């Protein structure tokens, strides 16, 4: 938020942008010193600090919320992407809230093994924006595979069983079906698949699709940007086929290396 705020201040010619960038850099250093831990698989961010200031070292989906915030450098983002893409986190119908290798894991434990679609969507969006579409792809596929089981009305959460073990996601008995932030996961997935990064003050729209799309060809129409209509069509190979954008907007298409 500090970096986004600094960018807005700069865009509107207001002071203090550098102050907030300095604040963000200091916060990242303090986070790096206190939260990063390691296990047999390597480094990763702890999910919290306990009452004594010690890292809570369970491997959880929380680390996915750090991506594309600016608190991680490129190497740290790659490390987090690799941890999220590992099968102990990603082979369910979406992203598990806790690694299946962790001692507290249970596929129907509320915060310790289930899949929350909004949580998965946050990680997917972060992976796409941080330049790790290959890690986002299985999580996208997992959510899309889960949707038919709930009549495309995504509930609050479901079981974190491996997709190879169950033909459909195991419902969580007390889940709210549907739930608003679960429904909003579809918007995050669409944004990740198209790689949209609008910069209205600068008059630019960056598009960086995730590469070969797990959904096949994708056409998104009727979006609104700068008060006008935006349509985007992407082929199955992840290449942009057409863009209808507001007049005067510079569209920058960035292709993910294959």
Helix and strand topology:
Layout: H1 2-11, H2 17-35, E1 36-39, E2 42-45, E3 48-49, E4 55-56, H3 74-85, H4 87-90, H5 117-129, H6 133-146, H7 180-183, H8 185-194, E5 196-199, E6 204-207, E7 218-225, E8 228-234, E9 240-244, E10 250-253
Parallel strand pairs: 6-10
Antiparallel strand pairs: 1-2, 3-4, 5-6, 7-8, 8-9
Helix pairs in contact: 1-2, 3-6, 5-6, 5-8
Account of the protein in words:
The protein has 258 residues and is α+β, with helices and mostly antiparallel strands. The chain folds into 2 domains: 40-194, Glycosyltransferase, CATH 1.50.10; 196-258, no CATH class. 33% of the residues lie in helices and 17% in strands. It has helices spanning 2-11, 17-35, 74-85, 87-90, 117-129, 133-146, 180-183, 185-194; strands at 36-39, 42-45, 48-49, 55-56, 196-199, 204-207, 218-225, 228-234, 240-244, 250-253. The strands form 4 sheets. The chain has a 3-stranded mixed sheet with strand order 5-6-10. A hairpin with a 5-residue loop joins strand 8 and strand 9 (240-244). Helix 1 (2-11) packs antiparallel against helix 2.
CATH class of the largest domain: Mainly Alpha
Compute the number of helices. Answer: 8
CATH topology of the largest domain: Glycosyltransferase
Q: Report the end-to-end length measured between terminal Cα atoms.
A: 32 Å
Rg is 19 Å
Order of helices and strands: HHEEEEHHHHHHEEEEEE
Helix-strand category: alpha+beta
Give the strand order of the largest sheet, numbering strands 1, 2, ... along the chain: 5-6-10
Strand content: 15-25%
Helix content percent band: 25-40%
- Mean pLDDT comes to 93
Shape: globular
What is the CATH architecture assignment of the largest domain? Alpha/alpha barrel
Multimerization state: single chain
Overall number of structural domains: 2
How many DSSP E strands?
10
Q: Point out poorly predicted stretches.
A: none
């Amino acid at each position: 938020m500090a970096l986004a705020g600094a960018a807005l201040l700069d865009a509107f010619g207001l002071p203090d942008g550098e102050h907030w960038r300095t604040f963000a850099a200091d916060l990242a250093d303090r986070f790096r010193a206190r939260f990063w831990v390691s296990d047999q698989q390597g480094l990763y961010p702890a999910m919290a600090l306990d009452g004594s200031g010690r890292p809570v070292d369970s491997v959880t989906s929380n680390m996915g919320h750090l991506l594309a915030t600016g608190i991680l450098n490129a190497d740290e983002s790659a490390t987090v992407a690799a941890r999220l893409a590992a099968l102990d986190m990603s082979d369910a119908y979406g992203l598990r809230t806790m690694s299946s290798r962790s001692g507290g894991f249970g596929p129907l434990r509320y915060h310790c093994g289930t899949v929350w679609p909004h949580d998965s969507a946050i990680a997917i969006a972060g992976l796409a924006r941080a330049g790790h579409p290959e890690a986002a792809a299985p999580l996208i596929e997992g959510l899309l595979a889960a949707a038919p089981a709930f009549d495309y009305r995504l509930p609050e959460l479901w079981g974190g069983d491996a997709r190879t073990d169950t033909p459909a996601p195991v419902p969580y008995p007390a889940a709210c079906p549907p739930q608003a932030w679960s429904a909003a996961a579809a918007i995050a997935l669409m944004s990740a698949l198209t790689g949209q990064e609008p910069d209205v003050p600068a008059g630019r729209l960056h598009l960086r699709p995730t590469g070969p799309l797990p959904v096949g060809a994708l056409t998104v129409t009727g979006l609104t940007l700068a008060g006008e209509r935006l349509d985007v069509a992407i082929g199955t190979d992840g290449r942009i086929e057409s863009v209808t954008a507001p007049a005067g907007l510079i569209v920058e298409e960035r292709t993910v290396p294959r």
